[in-house]
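I hope you will forgive my troubling you with a question about protein structure. The record follows directly beneath this note:
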Amino acid sequence: MTSTCQETAEQQAVVVHLLLHHIHAPLAGNLHLRGVLPVPPPAEAIRFAVGRAGTHAADGPIVYELPLRTGEGPLTAYDAIGILRTLLTGTRFHPSDRVGTVMGMKLVRVDPAAVEQAAETEDDTALRVLRTLVGPAALPGSVPGPGSGEHPDLRLRGFLFTGRDRLRLYLDAAEAPVAAGATDAPGRPLAAEIRLTGAVTALLAALPSLLREDERGAPDAADPHCSRVVDLTHW
Protein backbone atom coordinates (compact mmCIF):
# COMPACT_ATOMS: atom_id res chain seq x y z
CA MET A 1 0.00 0.00 0.00
CA THR A 2 1.39 3.40 -0.98
CA SER A 3 1.85 6.10 1.62
CA THR A 4 -1.09 8.07 0.17
CA CYS A 5 -3.36 5.03 0.34
CA GLN A 6 -2.19 4.36 3.88
CA GLU A 7 -2.96 7.92 4.92
CA THR A 8 -6.41 7.68 3.34
CA ALA A 9 -7.12 4.39 5.13
CA GLU A 10 -5.99 5.81 8.46
CA GLN A 11 -8.13 8.92 8.05
CA GLN A 12 -11.16 6.84 7.12
CA ALA A 13 -10.60 4.67 10.21
CA VAL A 14 -10.42 7.70 12.49
CA VAL A 15 -13.64 9.15 11.06
CA VAL A 16 -15.43 5.82 11.49
CA HIS A 17 -14.30 5.57 15.10
CA LEU A 18 -15.51 9.04 15.95
CA LEU A 19 -18.92 8.72 14.30
CA LEU A 20 -19.95 5.30 15.63
CA HIS A 21 -22.16 6.79 18.34
CA HIS A 22 -24.44 8.22 15.66
CA ILE A 23 -25.79 4.73 15.12
CA HIS A 24 -27.83 5.48 18.25
CA ALA A 25 -27.62 9.26 18.52
CA PRO A 26 -29.36 10.98 15.59
CA LEU A 27 -27.40 13.25 13.32
CA ALA A 28 -30.48 15.39 12.75
CA GLY A 29 -34.13 14.86 13.58
CA ASN A 30 -34.74 11.11 13.46
CA LEU A 31 -31.95 10.38 11.00
CA HIS A 32 -29.09 8.16 12.13
CA LEU A 33 -25.85 6.87 10.70
CA ARG A 34 -26.53 3.55 9.03
CA GLY A 35 -23.13 2.93 7.46
CA VAL A 36 -19.71 4.37 6.71
CA LEU A 37 -18.23 3.24 3.41
CA PRO A 38 -14.52 3.70 2.61
CA VAL A 39 -14.21 4.76 -1.00
CA PRO A 40 -11.45 2.66 -2.61
CA PRO A 41 -8.33 4.27 -4.11
CA PRO A 42 -7.36 6.22 -6.04
CA ALA A 43 -10.24 8.33 -4.72
CA GLU A 44 -9.68 10.01 -1.38
CA ALA A 45 -13.20 10.08 -0.02
CA ILE A 46 -15.59 8.55 2.49
CA ARG A 47 -19.32 7.84 2.30
CA PHE A 48 -21.99 8.06 4.98
CA ALA A 49 -25.28 6.17 4.72
CA VAL A 50 -28.00 8.02 6.59
CA GLY A 51 -31.55 6.90 7.37
CA ARG A 52 -34.04 6.25 10.13
CA ALA A 53 -32.99 4.10 13.07
CA GLY A 54 -33.04 0.41 12.28
CA THR A 55 -33.02 0.82 8.50
CA HIS A 56 -30.73 -1.19 6.24
CA ALA A 57 -29.35 -0.70 2.75
CA ALA A 58 -32.42 -2.29 1.21
CA ASP A 59 -34.61 0.31 2.94
CA GLY A 60 -33.03 3.07 0.92
CA PRO A 61 -30.83 5.28 3.10
CA ILE A 62 -29.15 8.12 1.26
CA VAL A 63 -25.38 7.94 0.90
CA TYR A 64 -23.37 11.16 1.06
CA GLU A 65 -19.82 11.14 -0.27
CA LEU A 66 -17.33 13.64 1.14
CA PRO A 67 -13.73 14.16 0.03
CA LEU A 68 -11.15 13.50 2.72
CA ARG A 69 -9.16 16.54 1.66
CA THR A 70 -10.44 20.04 1.00
CA GLY A 71 -8.89 23.43 0.45
CA GLU A 72 -8.80 23.90 4.22
CA GLY A 73 -6.92 20.65 4.85
CA PRO A 74 -7.99 17.13 5.81
CA LEU A 75 -11.65 16.46 6.55
CA THR A 76 -12.20 15.72 10.23
CA ALA A 77 -15.02 13.74 11.78
CA TYR A 78 -16.36 16.97 13.24
CA ASP A 79 -16.37 18.59 9.81
CA ALA A 80 -18.31 15.60 8.50
CA ILE A 81 -20.90 15.84 11.26
CA GLY A 82 -21.43 19.56 10.63
CA ILE A 83 -21.81 19.05 6.88
CA LEU A 84 -24.18 16.10 7.27
CA ARG A 85 -26.38 17.99 9.70
CA THR A 86 -26.73 20.84 7.23
CA LEU A 87 -27.56 18.44 4.40
CA LEU A 88 -30.16 16.63 6.51
CA THR A 89 -31.95 19.77 7.66
CA GLY A 90 -34.57 21.17 5.33
CA THR A 91 -34.89 20.58 1.60
CA ARG A 92 -31.79 20.76 -0.56
CA PHE A 93 -31.28 20.55 -4.32
CA HIS A 94 -28.38 18.46 -5.59
CA PRO A 95 -27.14 18.95 -9.18
CA SER A 96 -27.85 15.89 -11.34
CA ASP A 97 -24.19 15.38 -12.13
CA ARG A 98 -23.53 14.83 -8.42
CA VAL A 99 -26.29 12.26 -7.91
CA GLY A 100 -25.96 8.56 -8.65
CA THR A 101 -26.46 5.19 -7.03
CA VAL A 102 -24.29 2.77 -5.09
CA MET A 103 -25.34 -0.69 -3.87
CA GLY A 104 -28.92 0.23 -4.72
CA MET A 105 -28.84 3.39 -2.62
CA LYS A 106 -29.02 6.98 -3.76
CA LEU A 107 -25.54 8.52 -3.78
CA VAL A 108 -24.89 12.26 -3.46
CA ARG A 109 -21.36 13.52 -4.02
CA VAL A 110 -21.03 16.59 -1.83
CA ASP A 111 -18.88 19.65 -2.45
CA PRO A 112 -17.99 20.79 1.10
CA ALA A 113 -17.23 24.30 -0.17
CA ALA A 114 -20.90 24.65 -1.16
CA VAL A 115 -22.24 23.60 2.24
CA GLU A 116 -22.20 25.74 5.37
CA GLN A 117 -21.48 23.46 8.30
CA ALA A 118 -23.95 23.34 11.17
CA ALA A 119 -22.47 24.77 14.35
CA GLU A 120 -21.02 22.43 16.94
CA THR A 121 -23.35 21.95 19.90
CA GLU A 122 -22.38 21.97 23.57
CA ASP A 123 -22.82 18.20 23.71
CA ASP A 124 -20.57 17.82 20.65
CA THR A 125 -17.84 19.78 22.42
CA ALA A 126 -18.28 17.77 25.62
CA LEU A 127 -17.97 14.52 23.70
CA ARG A 128 -14.82 15.78 21.96
CA VAL A 129 -13.32 16.70 25.34
CA LEU A 130 -14.11 13.31 26.83
CA ARG A 131 -12.83 11.41 23.80
CA THR A 132 -9.60 13.36 23.87
CA LEU A 133 -9.04 12.15 27.41
CA VAL A 134 -10.15 8.52 27.12
CA GLY A 135 -9.35 7.71 23.50
CA PRO A 136 -6.26 9.70 22.50
CA ALA A 137 -5.02 7.16 19.97
CA ALA A 138 -7.84 8.17 17.62
CA LEU A 139 -7.29 11.90 17.95
CA PRO A 140 -4.08 13.27 16.45
CA GLY A 141 -2.64 16.01 18.61
CA SER A 142 -4.75 15.14 21.63
CA VAL A 143 -3.61 14.61 25.18
CA PRO A 144 -2.27 11.04 25.49
CA GLY A 145 -3.64 8.98 28.33
CA PRO A 146 -2.21 6.33 30.65
CA GLY A 147 -0.71 3.41 28.83
CA SER A 148 0.02 5.35 25.66
CA GLY A 149 3.75 5.24 26.31
CA GLU A 150 4.06 8.87 25.25
CA HIS A 151 2.91 11.24 27.97
CA PRO A 152 0.73 9.49 30.56
CA ASP A 153 -0.29 12.61 32.50
CA LEU A 154 -4.05 12.27 32.71
CA ARG A 155 -6.66 9.60 33.28
CA LEU A 156 -10.35 10.43 33.10
CA ARG A 157 -12.36 8.77 35.87
CA GLY A 158 -15.64 10.59 35.61
CA PHE A 159 -17.51 13.69 34.49
CA LEU A 160 -20.54 15.77 35.39
CA PHE A 161 -22.45 18.52 33.61
CA THR A 162 -22.58 21.07 36.37
CA GLY A 163 -24.39 23.88 34.56
CA ARG A 164 -24.88 25.55 31.24
CA ASP A 165 -21.57 25.56 29.38
CA ARG A 166 -19.91 23.84 32.35
CA LEU A 167 -18.35 20.41 32.57
CA ARG A 168 -16.49 18.95 35.54
CA LEU A 169 -13.80 16.42 34.70
CA TYR A 170 -12.57 14.00 37.37
CA LEU A 171 -8.93 13.25 36.58
CA ASP A 172 -5.92 11.42 37.92
CA ALA A 173 -2.99 13.70 37.17
CA ALA A 174 0.67 12.73 37.50
CA GLU A 175 2.66 14.66 40.13
CA ALA A 176 -0.33 16.79 41.13
CA PRO A 177 0.07 18.40 44.57
CA VAL A 178 -2.39 17.80 47.40
CA ALA A 179 -4.29 20.95 48.28
CA ALA A 180 -4.16 22.25 51.85
CA GLY A 181 -7.19 21.02 53.77
CA ALA A 182 -7.87 18.11 51.45
CA THR A 183 -8.99 14.95 53.23
CA ASP A 184 -8.81 11.35 52.07
CA ALA A 185 -6.94 12.55 48.99
CA PRO A 186 -5.34 9.16 48.18
CA GLY A 187 -7.47 7.40 45.60
CA ARG A 188 -9.60 10.43 44.89
CA PRO A 189 -9.12 12.31 41.63
CA LEU A 190 -8.79 15.99 41.06
CA ALA A 191 -11.64 17.85 39.44
CA ALA A 192 -11.21 20.40 36.67
CA GLU A 193 -14.14 22.67 35.95
CA ILE A 194 -14.10 23.83 32.33
CA ARG A 195 -16.24 25.72 29.85
CA LEU A 196 -17.36 24.01 26.67
CA THR A 197 -16.90 27.18 24.66
CA GLY A 198 -13.70 29.08 24.06
CA ALA A 199 -10.22 27.66 23.55
CA VAL A 200 -11.06 24.08 24.50
CA THR A 201 -8.28 22.50 22.43
CA ALA A 202 -5.63 24.77 23.95
CA LEU A 203 -6.99 24.11 27.43
CA LEU A 204 -6.78 20.34 26.98
CA ALA A 205 -3.17 20.65 25.84
CA ALA A 206 -2.30 22.73 28.92
CA LEU A 207 -4.36 20.69 31.37
CA PRO A 208 -1.57 18.41 32.70
CA SER A 209 0.67 21.35 33.62
CA LEU A 210 -2.22 23.41 35.01
CA LEU A 211 -3.18 20.64 37.41
CA ARG A 212 0.40 20.46 38.73
CA GLU A 213 0.42 24.09 39.85
CA ASP A 214 0.29 24.37 43.64
CA GLU A 215 -1.78 27.53 43.73
CA ARG A 216 -4.63 26.13 41.70
CA GLY A 217 -7.61 24.42 43.26
CA ALA A 218 -9.19 23.94 46.67
CA PRO A 219 -11.29 21.25 48.36
CA ASP A 220 -15.01 21.42 47.65
CA ALA A 221 -17.02 20.31 50.70
CA ALA A 222 -20.05 19.73 48.49
CA ASP A 223 -18.25 17.28 46.24
CA PRO A 224 -17.05 14.04 47.89
CA HIS A 225 -15.79 12.65 44.60
CA CYS A 226 -12.54 14.62 44.40
CA SER A 227 -9.72 15.87 46.59
CA ARG A 228 -9.94 19.40 45.15
CA VAL A 229 -11.49 21.40 42.34
CA VAL A 230 -9.47 23.44 39.88
CA ASP A 231 -11.63 26.14 38.32
CA LEU A 232 -10.49 26.67 34.74
CA THR A 233 -13.68 28.30 33.48
CA HIS A 234 -11.86 31.62 33.08
CA TRP A 235 -8.68 30.20 31.58
Remarks:
- Helices lie at 3-19, 77-88, 122-134, 200-211.
